[in-house]
Amino acid sequence: MPPALLSPPKISLGVTEACPLRCRHCYADCDAAPKPAELGIDAWMALADRLIADGVIQFYFEGGEPLLKPGFPALLARCARDAMTLLRTHGTLIDDAMADALRAAGVGRVLVDLMGACAGTHDAATGVPGSFAASCAGLRRCAERGIATDALVILTRQTAPELNDLLRLAAGLGAERVGVLRLYPLGRAKRRWDELALSLEEQMAAIRGLDPPPGLSVMQSWHPYDRNCCWQAAAIDATGRAIGCMYLREYADFGRVAGEGAVPFLDIWRHQPAYRRLRAGTGIERACGDCAGNDGSRGGCRASAYAFHGRWTAPDPFDEALNDGIDLRVLPGHARG
Amino acid sequence: MRPACPAGGAPPPDPGAGALPDCVLAPGVRLRPVPELSTCLAYVPGLPGDGAGGGRPALHRLNVSSWLIAALCDGRPPEAVADAFARARPAPADAVTSGTDLREGLRNLLAIGVLRTRHGDSPGPDCPRKETEP
Question: In chain B, where does DSSP find H-type helix?
Answer without folding.
Answer: 64-72, 78-88, 95-111
